[in-house]
Amino acid sequence: MFERPQERRSHLRFDKVFTVYLTTQDGMMRGVGRNISARGMFVEVRDSVGLGEKLKVTFAGEDGTEMTCLCEVRYQVALSFGRKDGREGSSRGVGLRIVAYETQDDAPLLLVDRERVMH
To answer: What's the maximum distance between 2 C-alpha atoms anywhere in the chain?
Structure first.
């Protein structure tokens, strides 16, 4: 039998589906956040985002509260698959590294530890 690869990620992951808003140089887009940790997250998106690009990700709570973080695109994923009904399906996403959190609208971003983390 094959041995399972050892988990290299040191931070706990929160595996839940939630809406996020990404602000890029080209404007704003909606995404679906998945698998978030203290250092990064995976977001499903419709449009591609360049590797290394810096963007802001805003989480909006049901009660109207918001939290924004500055992220860097670490990797991209594009999947093409067949559906049960015979049609073609696809999905696209980006792996993001969180580099800073916005504390208030009028305050600068609060930088987090910049240790290199691969997702």
So the answer is: 56
